[in-house]
Amino acid sequence: MVADARRWPAARRRHDHPAISVLSAVEGLDVATPAFAPYVAPITLALLTGLFSIQHKGASGIGVIFGPIMIVWFITIAVLGGAEIAREPAILAAFDPAHGVRFSRAPARARRCSFSAR
User: Would you list the domain boundaries of the chain?
Assistant: First the structure.
């Protein structure tokens, strides 16, 4: 794999992303509460070890485990979002297309700044 990564730099970059993505996700725990800071690396290593240990089963093997987890996650988001909409129905005003029309009529500089880093 090392020789392959030297010959094909794109392949090397492709292998780096999963670890970085998992680390970024787990670092969110540190943002939530600094008490998790010492556990970020061990949790990341445990997750990656678990993922790579079941990788040989293919996407279906991973899907069997993560499918139910994702269903619970989406249901949780739906329930929490529904509760917030029930508490503050004005949130739904964000779907009003008039906001987009007003934005499209804004000065060009304001529109450009919203889509660029300048």
Answer: 2-114
Please tell me the pTM assigned to this model. Answer: 0.49
- Name the burial class of residue 27, with classes exposed (0-12), middle (13-18) and buried (19+) by CB atoms within 10 angstroms of its CB: middle
Q: What backbone torsions phi and psi does residue 30 show, to the nearest 5 degrees?
A: -65, -35
Would you call 118 helix, strand, or coil by DSSP?
coil
47-58 per-position pLDDT tens digit: 889 888 887 877
> In sequence order, which residues have a C-beta less than 8 Å from that of residue 101 and are 6 or more positions away?
none
Provide the token pair at 35.
């008490």
40 close to 26: Cβ distance less than 8 angstroms: yes
Nearest C-alpha neighbor of 24 from the set 9, 12, 41: 41
